[in-house]
Design a protein that fits this description.
This protein has a single domain, classed as C2 domain (Immunoglobulin-like). Helix content is 5%, strand content 54%. The chain has a four-stranded antiparallel sheet. A hairpin with a 6-residue loop joins strand 5 and strand 6. It is elongated and about 55 Å long. One of its GO terms (molecular function) is calcium ion binding. This is C2 domain-containing protein. It holds the Pfam family C2.
Length: 126
Amino acid sequence: MAQLQVTVVEGRNLKKKDFFSESDPFVRIYLDDKHQTQKTKVKSNTKNPYWSEIFVFNHLKGQNFLHIDVYDKDLLFNDKIGSLKINLQDLYENKHIDNWYNLPSRFGVSSNGEIHLILDYQPLQL
C-alpha cells in the first residue's frame, strides 16, 4: 500500500469568522472516500496559525484527490473558513510538493486566506 504524508505547516490571512475575536482555526484532511479523516489541533485567536503537524494516509489506487477544509472552532457550530481539493496527479510524478494553497471564497471571487502544505508520496514497494 502506498503512503501519502501531509504536513500542515501554517495558515496566513485566514478570514475572520468571529465577531469579537480572531478565529480559532483547525484543518480537516481526507482522501476521496472520507474513511481516513484527520485533523489538526485548534489554534486559538489567530488568523495566522502555525501547526507543523504531520499526517500519514494509507493510499489506495483511485484516491486521486486530497480534500482540505479549514474551520473556525466554535462552541455550537464550526464555521468553514475555506476548502480546497488537490489533484494528486502531480505528486505521483514528483513525489514531493511544498506549496501555499489559496482558500477561495464561496464564489471564487476573493480569498479566505492561504494554507501551507507539504505533500510527500511513497509508492507501493514490491
